[in-house]
Amino acid sequence: MGCLFFPSLTIAHEISIKGIVYDKESNTPLPGAHIVLESTGKSTTSDAFGTYYFADLAEGSYELKISFIGYETNRITAVVKAGETTTLVSHLPTARLELSEVTIAAGVQSPVNSISGIDIKLRPTRSAQDMLRMVPGLFIAQHAGGGKAEQIFLRGFDIDHGTDINLTVDGLPVNMVSHAHGQGYSDLHFLIPETVESIDFGKGPYYSNKGDFTTAGYVGFQTKNALKKSMFKLEGGQFDTYRAVAMLDVLGEKSKEQGQSAYIASEYLFTNGYFDSPQNFNRLNLFGKYNRYIDNNKILNISLSIFNSKWDASGQIPQRAVDAGIIGRFGAIDDTEGGNTRRSNVNVQLTSILPGGATLKNQIYFTRYDFELYSNFTFFLNDSLNGDQIRQKENRNLTGYLGSYTQRSRLFNKELITEAGVGLRYDEIQNNELSRTKSRRITTANVALGDIDQLNAHAYFDEKLILSPKLTLNAGLRLDAFKFAYDNHLDSAYSRESASKTTISPKLNLNYDVTPGLRLFLNSGIGFHSNDTRVIIEQKGSDILPKAYGAEIGVLAKPTDKLIIHSSLWRLDLDQEFVYVGDEGIVEPSGKTRRYGIDFSLRYQLTSWLFADADLNLTRPRALATPQGEDYIPLAPMLTSIGGLSFRLTNGLNGSIRYRYLGDRPANEDNSVIAHGYLLADAVLNYTRPKYEIGFSIENTTNTSWKEAQFDTESRLRWEQQPVSEIHFTPGTPFFLKVNLSYFF
User: Fold this and answer.
1) How far apart, in whole angstroms, are the C-alpha atoms of residue 737 and residue 105?
2) CB of 287 within 8 A of CB of 195?
3) Exposed, middle or buried by CB within 10 Å (0-12, 13-18, 19+), for 108?
4) What is the pLDDT of residue 6?
């Protein structure tokens, strides 16, 4: 039966039912399971230990429904007696996904996570970037040979590489503050997609435990604590593309029964890409994780990872060069672009159940990060002899701590969940550089060079009051304090300048479960994103933590057993902000903005084996205090849609055919230049058996010519007398076939 344990729990009211939920196959506790106490209207979810409880129940017999997406539902009868605690144990086997078993009104859980739980079970993923696409309405674009962090679009934002979205992996921050290339730069390539267990995401600035960059939203990836099976995987495809993945269970089944597990995972990827100039892209990932249950009331997680990547790139090319036949669609003006990056992570988490029943979480992490990128966006605009190639480079140590305390209690006889948290993040960045170069080897000028120290301390307090089995009120307050310091190496005299800033972010949210199949929600809050240290120093510490004011109202509905609908109407206003343009080494002011829109998602089970999904997102992004007609926000998406059909047959055949649609967008402020959209179709087909899987995937099945990244850029080619401003683009993937073979043991 495995390792059965129950954390001690004594709180201000009497526990009537206490239980624990296990994954039957891996024999490990299953956090996030939904438990419904039928006929009472009460529901809850299992915690990090897989445990749950119901308190203050009258004597009698109760029916419990225990479910989790992708697992067989368990129904248990529990008899409650006065003064006694009924103890229950459930082992859930994996099973065919049935939307009829999905519970949308489960305690205080985020409504959108019902959607993400379905998607991760159904959609095959090829990369960490595919995992990002699990967020409804989120689009990405790559424009530097595959090794650079992707450009992200969400809720009317051109987020660049992460300025307005908070990304984490096991709580470890991905966003890099005051980065050499751009604020919030988020390179997810160190995440091996096969190690991902779940995805937590939310849109808007409504969450007390989410701080810097949480304006458009956040995405948190959680890696597996244990492997159900070890595996080897080989992939090969067009354009000299090869990938190998290995995931090995280190300790075995006996150790799982004793409450501990460990595994190691590795990934190697090589591709020349579809460009005329080979991208010579190499990536190596190593990841290890150890999980231990200690004394029945503690969980220790330790993970280590190493990531290294190097590549060449064609960059963005001008439309006029393609039209004139000077280069082909997949050609390059400067074929010496590219870069290399390395990242090593140590992450330690300890979760404890205290004698009074509270949960205490402590996490410490350390990252060593090195980055070097060569780009050329304007060719010979500024330097007609050597060209305009730039080098952006930095070396960084990132150290941090996260702590939280959660306690259940009673307030006026209503259940109250209190969470308080603190954290500290320190970025020590050495030789943050922007230089002008030629062919990567010759430095012609230093534009910016210096050392950055950035410290962010935070504290938050969050209360969830269960006013009734149907109504939950959530209020929170967050405090963030920053200290910025910059040592400019290009200043002949030693000059270390610093500035400090504090911001407060209140939140207020409401969930109302009209019926078990209909939840209404109202979210509101203030968020922010920090700006580059060099902006802060130049602005003398003023207007450097621009706030975001957000609100939304929506519904999560299950009108039939097989259909789930999520829809919301939202608005987000941003304060004045100053942006550090890492490619030019200058500060560029930007005024207030307003975005509002509608998000709509549905998940429908057509048959026992066929599923349909669709996401539609409409947004109106505009700059404020700007003349009408000149108030467009460049590259901000206004209409996006993602959807498809997924199937899972009992004979092992499974796969999907999916579409991605991005509408036309303004490429400049007066909409005189258009970034044209695209409609693409991708397909995946696998044959999965207990011991092996064989399959293939096709990106862009119709071989559509499309532009993945687009910018309205002023540039000059070597032979041109005058500069030209027009669309510069990175071509999107043509028809791209890959095959894969996996072995499980």
Assistant:
1) 41
2) yes
3) middle
4) 45
Residue 169 neighbours by CB under 8 Å, 6+ apart: 188, 190, 191, 220, 221, 223
Angle at 235 between CA 232 and CA 238, to 5 degrees: 170
What backbone torsions phi and psi does residue 113 show, to the nearest 5 degrees?
-70, -20
- For the chain, the average pLDDT equals 91
Rounded-to-integer distance, Cα 332 and Cα 330, Å:
7
- Alpha-carbon distance 619 to 728, whole Å? 24
Burial of 492 (0-12, 13-18, 19+ CB in 10 A): exposed
Contact 711, 316 (CB under 8 A): yes
Burial class from Cβ neighbours inside 10 Å (0-12, 13-18, 19+) for residue 704 reads: middle
C-alpha distances in angstroms, 455 versus 181, 401, 483, 484, 527?
19, 12, 5, 7, 18
Considering Cα of 432, then 434, then 438, then 440, what sign does the dihedral take? positive
Three-state secondary-structure class, residue 404:
strand
Backbone torsion region of residue 56, taken as left when φ is above 0, otherwise alpha when ψ lies between -120 and 50, otherwise beta:
left
HSE-up of 529 (CA within 13 Å, CB side)?
32
Question: What gap in Å lies between CA 418 and CA 409, rounded to an integer?
Answer: 8
Q: Give the count of beta carbons closer than 10 Å to the beta carbon of residue 745.
A: 10
Q: Identify the CA nearest to 501 among candidates 545, 565, 557, 437.
A: 545
CA dist., res. 298 & res. 401, Å (int):
18
Listed residue (680, 666, 713, 665) closest to 317, CA to CA: 713
One-letter amino acid of 356: G
What is the rounded CA–CA span in Å between residue 301 and residue 214? 26
| SS3 readout for 667-694 | CCCCCCCEECCEEEEEEEEEEECCCEEE
* Nearest CA among 64, 50, 68, 48 for reference residue 16: 64
What whole-number distance in Å separates Cα of residue 271 and Cα of residue 268?
10
CB 136 within 8 A of CB 122: no
| Secondary element (H or E) of residue 403 | strand 390-411
Q: Is the dihedral of CA 277, 278, 280, 281 positive or negative?
A: positive
Q: Which residues contact 695 (CB under 8 A, 6 or more apart)?
A: 124, 655, 684, 685, 686, 687, 688, 739, 740
**CB under 8 Å to 110, separation ≥6 — which residues?**
200, 202
* pLDDT, tens only, 103-118: 776 555 555 565 666 7
Instruction: Give the DSSP H or E segment for 453.
Output: strand 442-466
- What is the predicted pLDDT for the residue at 587? 62
State how far the Cα of 424 lies from the Cα of 520, in Å rounded to an integer: 35
| Residue 133 main-chain phi, psi, to 5 deg | -70, -5
**Is-contact 622 633, C-beta < 8 A?**
yes
Which residues contact residue 687 at a Cβ distance below 8 angstroms, ignoring those fewer than 6 apart?
Answer: 652, 653, 654, 693, 694, 695
Contact call for residues 428 and 403 (beta carbons, < 8 A): no
Task: Name which of 452, 458, 349 is nearest 397 in CA terms.
Answer: 452
How far apart are the two ends of the chain, measured CA to CA in Å? 22
According to DSSP, residue 195 is labeled G
Give the pLDDT confidence score for residue 45 in this predicted structure: 84
Strands 15-23 and 86-92: parallel
Residues 6+ apart with CB under 8 A from 34: 43, 45, 65, 66, 67, 68, 103, 106
Q: CA-CA distance, 605 to 107, in Å (whole number)?
A: 24
Q: 103, 514 in Cβ contact below 8 A? A: no
CA 713 → CA 37, 356, 448, 635, 656, distances in Å? 60, 61, 22, 12, 38
Q: Which segments of the chain have a pLDDT < 70?
A: 1-13, 105-117, 124-126, 128, 577-583, 585-589
Residues 6+ apart with CB under 8 A from 220: 167, 168, 169, 171, 199, 200, 201
